[in-house]
Amino acid sequence: MLEITVIIIHEVGLHARPASLFVQTAAKYSSDIEVTHGEITTNAKSILGVLTLGAHKGAEINIKAEGEDAEEALKALEQLVLNNFGEDE
Fold this sequence. Notes:
By secondary structure, the protein is an alpha+beta fold. 35% of the residues lie in helices and 26% in strands.
């Protein structure tokens, strides 16, 4: 299983539109992907799960992926977060 850690820089954190984009991106890959914030771990392809993380601006999240396209999935999710979900800061 591969994993990365990223910091949420989006003003509202991983909520609403950013959470939706995160889930949509994860869903493009066949790998099993989970995301953790604090004590909560959830399926990265579940919008309700991602919203329950409560990951605010500045939060550190850990993303793990396992499967044939795991590396590609992690790179895409990392870029999404680092690029502020396609929004200007």
